[in-house]
Design a protein that fits this description.
The protein has 395 residues and is mainly alpha-helical. It contains 14 helices and 3 strands. Helices cover 72% and strands 3% of the residues.
Length: 395
């Protein structure tokens, strides 16, 4: 049965292996980290896990399978629809968004009552849209009016709308956009203009935005932790304790103590819990998995026969790995506290679903690369047979 299911999956086998490993790690880590949450809610850990996170993990794997079967070229058309939906949703989130964890990043879905983080949709929408636009405009990519302004208009609008509620996600998405512009052959001069414009927008959001006090407090706390009150550095301090007590091999699965003190041990700081329980060795394994993912994705990009597929795989893989290392950097004290989850590991419904779709699209591009390689090999064998058949026999 397993072999039959494996035969139905296409794309890079290493990426499939990474998906399975990260999913298993996610189930174990969230199972441990949600112990305190389950106790506070008066529920068994097993019930909380099975009814929420495990279901989303299985749904995510299902989304990966479905997305990888769809020809990635269809995402070019889908990206236009996503952008049309995303921008009004981001506006709606800013005005009517639900407040969770001191931030208005969520929209409550009517009837079912679940919350939906619009920035997750925006990331997927903008990357696919940029890949489409850069491919479509390649013939006149240096033209400011026809190419540069339309492309950068979409980037700037999405950046500002996300940044007003979630600056860390906006900055990472802006960085991914710059990388895509470089790959898409936008001139260095135009990219420098983009960076300058992005810096101006950043200053506007940072000093005049609705969450300016929160952003300034986090930066100030990170730069001068010794000058702050303990309540402002509480999360970072508890994460450092988890790292320090974890040691090389950790306390063992389920033996975390800092899960009782960290506000969000199952999402934003799950990497700290992993290190506490699995040690430095466990943290290094997680890092290696994401680095291997990036390496395999780069191989897909270099082999992709079409520009759209290459740009799509590049943008999504950069987004996933940058987000992963941003989450890990915060957990180990190398960056200010943000609300960025660890892709495919942290507990979170919308994050898990959209991350899974991103993985599925990358595998869809990989599937096309494999099929193209098989077709090329088959044509070469056919041509070789024809050539050999034309050689006259030697008497």
């Amino acid at each position: 049965m397993f072999q039959a299911l494996l035969n139905k999956t296409k794309g890079d086998r290493w990426i499939w292996l990474i998906i399975i490993l990260l999913s298993l790690i996610s189930v174990m880590a969230v199972y441990s980290a949600t112990g305190t949450l389950a106790y506070k809610k008066g529920e068994a850990v097993e019930k909380l896990l099975l009814t929420k996170h495990l279901i989303f993990v299985l749904m995510g794997i299902g989304m990966i399978y479905i997305a990888h079967l769809l020809d990635y070229r269809y995402y070019a058309g889908i990206s236009k629809v996503l952008m049309i939906v995303t921008i009004p949703l981001l506006f709606y989130t800013l005005i009517f968004g639900t407040n969770l964890n001191d931030a208005s990043r969520w929209v409550k879905i009517p009837v079912i009552g679940l919350t939906f983080q619009t920035s997750d949709l925006a990331k997927l929408a903008l990357i696919t849209f940029l890949a489409r636009m850069l491919t479509k405009k390649q013939e006149n990519i240096k033209n400011v009016k026809e190419s540069f302004i339309p492309i950068m208009g979409s980037v700037c609008v999405v950046f500002v709308l996300i940044a007003l509620a979630n600056l860390s996600t906006a900055l990472m998405l802006f960085g991914v956009s710059i990388l895509l512009l470089i790959i898409g052959r936008i001139s260095i001069k135009q990219i420098a203009i983009v960076c300058a414009g992005g810096f101006v927008l950043l200053l506007f959001v940072f000093f005049l935005g609705p969450r300016r006090k929160t952003y300034m407090s986090r930066i100030n706390t990170f730069m001068h932790p010794e000058m702050q009150h303990s309540d402002k550095t509480f999360q970072a301090d508890q994460a450092k304790i988890a790292l320090a007590t974890g040691g090389v091999f950790g306390k063992g699965p389920g033996n975390s103590t800092q899960r009782n003190f960290l506000p969000h041990p199952y999402s934003d700081f799950i990497f700290a819990i992993i290190i506490e329980e699995w040690g430095t060795v466990g943290g290094i394994v997680i890092m290696i998995l994401y680095l291997v993912l990036l390496y395999r994705c780069i191989k897909i990009v270099t082999r992709a026969p079409k520009a759209f597929g290459a740009l799509l795989a590049a943008g999504l893989s950069f987004s996933l790995t940058i987000q992963a290392f941003a989450n890990m950097a915060v957990a180990v004290g190398l960056g200010p506290v943000t609300g960025v989850p660890l892709p495919l590991v942290s507990m979170g419904g919308t994050s898990m679903i959209f991350t899974s779709v991103a993985f599925g699209i990358i595998l869809s591009v990989s599937r096309d690369v494999e099929e193209n390689a098989k077709l090329t090999t088959k044509e070469e064998k056919t041509n070789n047979k024809i050539i050999v058949g034309e050689i006259p026999a030697i008497a």
